[in-house]
Specification:
This protein has helices at residues 14-61, 71-74, 84-97, 142-151, and strands at residues 104-114, 126-137, 157-166, 172-183. By secondary structure, the chain is α+β, with helices and mostly antiparallel strands.
């Protein structure tokens, strides 16, 4: 092997070796520093996640006191007549707010003067309307948004059953049976 280059300078064969050692001396500790940083960051995020989960569990475990009215106490707040068009437009608005605008097979069936789903005796002027809702959706988690929005309305709704049938990862059939009420009295 030659000891001089074409310009007559002496070749130093140890210089590339020192360069390789220098690169390893920089890269190897850098790798461990980055790995250590991300492990510390991951530990911090895991601790925050477990803390948030514990807070959620505590919040779910606490009983929230709500002022629930007896059925007899709600009668003055019930509407005096039933309007299917108003209920339909209200439920369509809830569907749109819940992000279920593209739900296929959206069907509403109204059964006027249905049997009241409560065991308590109520005045004969209180009438129930059973509403059967069915639709095919692409995200089953939006059903909870739908029911939460439904319960937040001023109209009284009583959800009797909610059934979600999964067809695969991206579609589900929702069947919801609920009631609304009205107080059939004549106001003069």
């Amino acid at each position: 092997m030659r000891k001089i280059d074409v310009f007559g300078r002496k070749l130093n064969l140890t210089r590339p070796f020192y360069l390789i050692i220098l690169i390893f001396a920089i890269v190897l500790p850098g790798y461990f520093l980055i790995q250590n940083y991300f492990n510390a960051k991951m530990d911090t995020l895991s601790a925050e996640r477990s803390q948030l989960q514990n807070q959620i569990i505590v919040l779910l475990g606490q009983s929230q006191e709500e002022a629930l009215l007896e059925i007899d106490e709600m009668t003055p707040y019930l509407p005096t007549h039933f309007s299917q068009n108003a209920i339909t437009s209200e439920l369509t608005g809830v569907r749109d707010l819940a992000g279920l605008t593209l739900a296929s097979g959206y069907e509403l069936q109204f059964i006027d003067d249905a049997t009241i789903p409560f065991t308590d005796t109520l005045p004969s002027t209180i009438k129930a309307v059973q509403i059967n809702l069915s639709m095919t959706i692409d995200d089953a988690s939006k059903v909870l948004d739908y029911t939460n929005l439904l319960m937040a309305l001023d109209t009284f709704y009583y959800i009797e059953s909610l059934e979600v049938t999964y067809f695969g990862e991206d579609q589900a059939m929702v069947e919801l049976v609920f009631y609304t009420f009205y107080n059939e009295i004549i106001i003069s």
